[in-house]
Amino acid sequence: MSKHITMKDIAEKVGVSTVTVSKALNDKEGVGGELKQKIKAVAMELGYRLNTAAKSMREGLTYNIGVVIPERFTGPDQSFYLRVYQEIAKALESHGYYGILHILSSSDEQELQLPRVYYDRKVDGIILLGQISKPYIELMNSTRTPILFLDFYDDHSDIDAVVTDNFYGAYEMTNYLIRLGHRNIAFVGSIHSTSSIQDRFLGYYKSLLEHRIPLRQEWVLHDRDEHGTLIDIAMPAELPTAFVCNCDQVAYLVVQQLKNNGLRIPEDCSVVGFDNDIYATLTDPHLTTVEVDIEQLAQSSTQTMLGKIASPDLRHGRIVVPGKIIYRDSVRELL
Amino acid sequence: MSKHITMKDIAEKVGVSTVTVSKALNDKEGVGGELKQKIKAVAMELGYRLNTAAKSMREGLTYNIGVVIPERFTGPDQSFYLRVYQEIAKALESHGYYGILHILSSSDEQELQLPRVYYDRKVDGIILLGQISKPYIELMNSTRTPILFLDFYDDHSDIDAVVTDNFYGAYEMTNYLIRLGHRNIAFVGSIHSTSSIQDRFLGYYKSLLEHRIPLRQEWVLHDRDEHGTLIDIAMPAELPTAFVCNCDQVAYLVVQQLKNNGLRIPEDCSVVGFDNDIYATLTDPHLTTVEVDIEQLAQSSTQTMLGKIASPDLRHGRIVVPGKIIYRDSVRELL
DNA sequence: CTGAAAGCGCTTACAG
DNA sequence: CTGAAAGCGCTTACAG
Predict the structure, then answer these.
(1) Which of A204, A294, B116, B182 is the most buried (most CB within 10 A)?
(2) Where on strand C do bases come within 7 A of a protein Cβ?
(3) Mind listing the pLDDT tens digit for each residue in B41-96?
(4) What CATH architecture does domain B166-292 belong to?
């Protein structure tokens, strides 16, 4: 193996000290303009690459951020969080940081085992992507490592979170349906399952309230069991004219089920989703849905995390990233 | 911020030197059994965590592996490589290593810009996941960083690669169809697009050859343009009784197209896929397909990479991971 | 079995 | 504007 080039090599070649090389390469004050150019040129010529480990030790920063996703959100048919991770990795890189992914196994979550990145002191902070058990949140919170929740939050008011505006997205979507003449509108989603679903439900409910449409409990449909596993949806005896589904995958299943019952979408029944993921265009007809702004989610969480590392005591609160309705073909206007 | 605990803190508390602490914590020789236990107990009590940066600098290893995926393989509807990455991250962690994901933008690929992880000396080796342009391969190869191809290979006989056994998988699948009485079998996939598709085609062809079934060029169908974008498939005038598709997504599209032409699957026409990804069970009927063993792919590539880091001059060659036929409902027996 | 010394490559005060 | 000194936390010879 050819030895790595260090600042010392550059210093010797140029005939200055390593201190000066360090200053020049980092654009710090205290080096003459001409000398600085010279040093940079020689660095380039020699193929110098910074030894990050040395810098890390010196500064006490790893320039890594851990991204922890509970494994139940990473099945073969759930790529959403992996896509978020991908965007986070990109966003971090543009700030000179790197992401390290950790899939948290369900057993580690139950047994309150912290991710290895923590014990190896591999990261300067941890982004928790996807709702996790309360005891685990407590545990993470007790580590004094900067923590950020992404795509969920709970009653830990002392932890910062970045979330999609689930509430407002579902509210706007329901308003849209009502504007088209719908008044019999169901919500599909188990409202005690995750805070996302709960907030989407509340947005739907607010829209009903504002329009003085009573909430009918038999039109709030369960879509998953207590483990989060999707279950068959029990259709109500009296059918609504529209279904607000808590996500595209469930909307896809609802459409299938309605079709099996001989109904046409959207002629007989309108169905809307949330997320604008692969299921939105896999459904026939393509779903009207709310697009989650993954890129913005990634950027906000990256910036917030870097801010927390720089000033650990600064509070950021709950940062809400708005979504956007994508109009497609699964909704019909009622006359 | 509370100061971090170091080996020195442990050493002082126990009344020994940091050398002894280091030996004890790393299970190295030269520490008495009882003392070792004592040291470990105190480390635990104090909540000691290794400073990886210091270890890294000392040993010249980052304990990180870069995983580079060209961005064209990471669209919203392509989660396969992200899932492979996820498994690699897991496999690496069990070896005390971590993965750092880098999505290679198409412009960086064209302009031969190496990933930042390289310049920041963030990784001990790079796994290239997904076919990449030849000039870029040359470039990577010139860096003297250990490189491993994953899920593709080309004529660089001096680079190691881990691939799914595309050839054998398609060969077995075609054999299966022939065993069921099919003799008019088409292949769907642009055979100059990627080496995976090419190898799957060759496996299909070998099966035909062995059974003395002539290859009909009009039954080798294009499915994507030169950019890899999927295109409408031009069905041949005379229809075969079975389609061997190069991947599940394309099988899904073929099924749709055949259905639109009024054909029933599998009664009128059999269709098989490859990958066993989300499209396999999204298709109606569910696809008979070849499952790619993602976990094994991840483990083999991780082990090979760690082997290369330990012994840079050792050659590993092309490591082939077998797939497995998953029998479902898209194939019918011809009598 | 235990420890003093040296060094990995960098950056931050501080002195000139 | 430039550089000598010190130190980040660890581990590897080496000496006792």
Answers:
(1) A204
(2) 1-5, 7-14
(3) 899 998 899 998 899 988 889 999 999 999 999 877 778 899 999 999 999 999 99
(4) 3-Layer(aba) Sandwich (3.40)
